[in-house]
Model the fold of this input.
Amino acid sequence: MAKARTPQDLNRPIRQDAPLLRRGKLVEPGEGVSIWWMGDDLITFSAVSEDTGSEYAFWLDCPPPGTGPPRHVHSREEEGFFLLRGKLELKAGGIHTTVEDGTFFAAPRGIAHEWRNVGEDSAQLLTFTTPGGNEGFFLELGEPGDGPPGKRGTMPVQEINARTPRYGVTYLENGADGSARPLPIGEGRGPTLVLPGEGDRRYAAGATYTIKAAGLATAGAYTVTEITLEPGGSMPAHRHARYEEVFYVLEGTATALVDGEEYEASAGAVVLVPWGVHHSVRNRTDRTVRLFDLTVPGGIEDYYRGACRPAPGPDSDPGGDLDRLTAVGRQFGIEVGTG
Done:
């Protein structure tokens, strides 16, 4: 007797072909979907749920001095931030501190948090949520970003919360610190704060991978890595069987080959790589290239730890590095040396 085909069996071809429906792409600096939030805060979305299969959303926030979100808590999303430029006062899960350029911080779902630009100029803040969907709140309430800024506005917490149930976020009254009791889903977890230069470093083929957040800190939801490519260094051609990936170019110009298309990605550019799509990133210049790298879900950090050396060391061995990346990659659904 033939085995009955379950809905899962029927959907398998659809899942296998999903990457064909979402091609990798380059988002140049300033491109994307821009809105004015509360009048004068420019937010530009490089990736929304439609771009990522609802796995994550990714945007650049440029809050003016004195602005920032009221204390709030997510019931569905993990949220992370990388401060490109500026000075922010951060309150989250009992942490109350001031952070500056190059700091990564994140709030797990269920943990109340808020931040405010306490610098003299507009800040620049990379922000992401995983899974995606929360970006709809900003797109619904914001004004189109193709015109001049408006007058700075505010909205009572009660009015905000009348609009937020579908987005899984609740706004709270501001308090003296960030120690509001977490939602049950946040019990036992806390915020992540990684200062510039901190992280677990690994090295292979001219690339240094500094792991900023992974594992227990993100409940397996994502991994954040700062990647430095020395001149001639590269992330060799590969593809993932499960990871969505997005690169933001922090410094220099990277050459990205994604699904057969070659892009020159300069500082401020974003490269989106769906799972299953061949890609590589190289530094063809004589200057250092730095990347902010987000992969969803988490777990790729174990690949870096297994395949890479702790430090460059005195002897270069790019061939050996590539062999290890290839061999260890098979354990993580990462196919190296293809495309």
In short: The chain has a mean pLDDT of 90. The longest strand covers residues 78-85. Residues 7-21 form the longest helix (15 residues).
